[in-house]
């Protein structure tokens, strides 16, 4: 018997649990996809397939999709431009204020979006034109997602090998710009791409904060969804959800694929 | 640094404002959550629900994660990405899923009617909320546990098996201790997310009142800003504390976001 592996039994309990969980996760998705495409939900597939709910959603809520994608892209751009220098500074200083600031920066993630939204309204709600623009929502999203960028990129900057590399470049006479473009940016590129993707995903799906910040004229995709669930028939809500699946998910997958590719090429 | 400016102007200043606001209505406003039975009940509802959801999420997510990490079958990658797909769904969609599943026109109502038990609706009560929270928590724990279980040391388990350990003993003495850091980190995130979840309960217009809904109602329906601020602080403190403790003790266990 020596050297022989213990017989491996198939774990039926685990398999059954996995199957049940899979059903629980997939049935609602399937339900909502069919409900968005049938003429009448309570009669089911027998009432025939239609795209008229999709068209109705497109007319009524198409702009929410455009705005969500715009806000998410801008949010990713801003958090990267602003967050990466901060991540570098935090990774290269040992000062106590830096640790304190790092700790503070985790707060917007831990504190529920509802509270952040409330706070923003209380302070800036009086500035009418700001309050009524998409900028208000964008600011909320930036504050909420910035910590993710700073934390992810900062830990990439703190890599020991990178510190040694940068030191080597410095002793060889490379100036800061040279080190930045030649050493630092390429080294943390995977972290930057990954956090930009995370920010984009978080921003597109954000509701807790956005619902507090939105106005009837400034609606994002999740806000529109909530509105359609509350006020439209079930087929319209489903069609809207389907649009989310069709447009947003492939986009997120494509971005994920790009991020993986970058990770493969530049990652260590 | 621009980060400091953005952070202070749009987060710290508003938060300070929020923290100071209840003082205008008297110091007792800060303690409304302890003194007022309605708000205390709402807090306890939320904590209880979140604890229950966390326990179920960890147990189920752990089982699925270990299974997916151990058995390489055809379509495993596809299944894993399908199961983690809901990570990118807004909470409102998951509330809507529950309506489709357990609402008045829902699948469960159709099934129970066919079985002669009448039209069963569970979406708008505790059960619906529990299932919905479970739905948005499971993907995170499945992704996290699958990644962690793939790194588990198989030799330990093999050794335990050759020495005649039962399945239960392996679970208790090998799996649970080995996955403990992951469990701890994942529990904190799942609990914090459940505490602060607003979209799902909002869509379900649930009869089981949770704290985010209470805050929202105080703010919009009664324009009671000071009280809403005080309750938000309580909610923020609980979630922050849980995350803080988890971060202190599990530095190395990564969790899927």
Structure characterization notes:
The complex is a heterodimer of chains A (268) and B (257). With 268 residues, chain A is an all-alpha fold. Chain A is 79% helix and 0% strand. Chain A is built from twelve helices and no strands. The longest helix of chain A is centred in the first third of the chain and has 41 residues, at 52-92. Chain B is an all-alpha fold and 257 residues long. Chain B has 13 helices and no strands. At the A-B interface, helix 1, helix 2, helix 3, helix 4 and helix 5 of A face helix 1, helix 3, helix 4, helix 5 and helix 7 of B.
Structure at a glance:
Chain A is mainly α and 268 residues long. Chain A is built from twelve helices and no strands.
List the helices and strands and how they pair.
The complex is a heterodimer of chains A (268) and B (257).
Chain A (H helix, E strand, L loop, with lengths): L11 H24 L16 H41 L3 H10 L1 H4 L2 H12 L3 H4 L2 H24 L2 H12 L4 H30 L2 H6 L7 H11 L2 H33 L2
Helix pairs in contact in A: 1-12, 2-7, 2-9, 2-11, 2-12, 7-9, 8-9, 9-12, 11-12
Chain B lengths: L1 H19 L11 H4 L1 H34 L5 H9 L6 H12 L4 H8 L11 H25 L3 H9 L4 H12 L1 H17 L2 H6 L6 H10 L4 H25 L8
Helix pairs in contact in B: 3-7, 3-10, 5-7, 7-10, 8-9, 10-13, 12-13
Distance separating the two termini of chain A: 42 Å
What integer is the average pLDDT of chain A?
Answer: 84
Report the order of strands and helices of chain B.
HHHHHHHHHHHHH
Strand content of chain A: under 5%
| Number of distinct helices of chain A | 12
Helix content of chain B: over 70%
SSE order of chain A, one letter for each helix or strand: HHHHHHHHHHHH
Largest sheet of chain A: none
Which structural category do the helix and sheet elements of chain B fall into?
mainly alpha
Range of strand content of chain B: under 5%
The gross shape of chain B turns out to be globular
How far apart, in Å, are the first and last alpha carbons of chain B?
27 Å
Average pLDDT for all residues of chain B: 85
Helix fraction of chain A by DSSP (H/I, runs of at least 4): over 70%
Shape of chain A: globular
Biggest interface goes to: A-B, 76 and 79 residues
Count all strands of chain B and give the number: 0
Low-confidence stretches of chain A: 1-7
What oligomeric state do the depicted chains represent?
heterodimer
What structural category characterises the helix and strand content of chain A?
Answer: mainly alpha
């Amino acid at each position: 018997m020596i050297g022989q592996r213990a017989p491996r039994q198939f774990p039926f309990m685990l398999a059954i649990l996995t199957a049940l969980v899979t059903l629980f996760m997939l049935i609602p998705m399937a339900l909502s996809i069919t409900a968005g495409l049938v003429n009448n939900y309570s009669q089911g597939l027998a009432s025939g397939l239609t795209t008229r709910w999709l068209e109705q959603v497109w007319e009524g809520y198409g702009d929410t999709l455009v705005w969500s994608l715009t806000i998410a892209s801008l949010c990713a751009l801003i958090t990267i431009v602003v967050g990466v220098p901060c991540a570098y500074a935090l990774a290269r200083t040992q000062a106590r204020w830096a640790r304190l600031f790092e700790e503070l920066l985790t707060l917007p993630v831990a504190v529920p979006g509802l509270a952040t939204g409330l706070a923003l309204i209380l302070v800036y709600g009086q500035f009418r034109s700001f309050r009524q623009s998409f900028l208000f929502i964008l600011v909320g999203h930036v504050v909420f997602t910035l910590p993710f960028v700073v934390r992810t990129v900062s830990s990439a900057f703190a890599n020991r090998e990178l510190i040694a590399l940068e030191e080597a470049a410095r002793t060889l006479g490379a100036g800061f710009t040279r080190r930045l473009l030649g050493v630092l940016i390429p080294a943390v590129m995977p972290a930057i791409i990954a956090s930009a993707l995370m920010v984009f995903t978080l921003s597109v799906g954000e509701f807790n904060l956005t619902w507090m910040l939105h106005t009837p004229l400034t609606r994002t995709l999740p806000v529109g969804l909530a509105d359609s669930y509350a006020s439209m028939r079930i087929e319209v809500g489903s069609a809207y959800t389907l649009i989310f699946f069709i447009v947003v998910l492939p986009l997120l997958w494509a971005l994920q694929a790009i991020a993986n590719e970058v990770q493969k090429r530049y990652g260590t | 640094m621009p980060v400091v400016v953005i952070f202070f102007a749009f987060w710290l200043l508003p938060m300070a404002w929020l923290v100071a606001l209840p003082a205008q209505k008297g110091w007792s406003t800060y303690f409304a959550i302890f003194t007022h039975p309605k708000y205390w009940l709402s807090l306890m509802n939320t904590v209880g629900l979140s604890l229950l959801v966390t326990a179920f999420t960890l147990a189920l997510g752990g089982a699925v994660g270990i299974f997916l990490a151990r058995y390489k079958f055809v379509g495993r990658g596809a299944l894993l990405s399908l199961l983690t797909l809901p990570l990118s769904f807004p909470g409102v969609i998951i509330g809507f899923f529950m309506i489709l599943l357990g609402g008045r026109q829902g699948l469960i109502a159709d099934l129970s009617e066919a079985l002669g038990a009448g039209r069963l609706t569970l979406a708008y009560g505790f059960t619906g909320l529990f299932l919905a929270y479970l739905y948005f928590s499971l993907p995170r724990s499945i992704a996290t546990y699958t990644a962690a279980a793939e790194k588990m040391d198989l030799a330990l388990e093999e050794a335990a098996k050759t020495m005649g350990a039962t399945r239960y003993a392996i679970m208790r003495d090998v799996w649970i201790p080995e996955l403990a850091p992951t469990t701890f980190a994942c529990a904190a995130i799942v609990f914090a997310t459940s505490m602060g979840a607003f979209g799902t309960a909002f869509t379900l217009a649930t009869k089981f009142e949770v704290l985010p809904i209470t805050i929202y109602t105080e703010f919009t329906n009664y324009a009671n800003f000071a009280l809403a601020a005080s309750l938000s602080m309580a909610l923020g403190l609980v979630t922050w504390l849980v995350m803080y403790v988890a971060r202190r003790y599990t530095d190395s266990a990564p969790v899927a976001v």
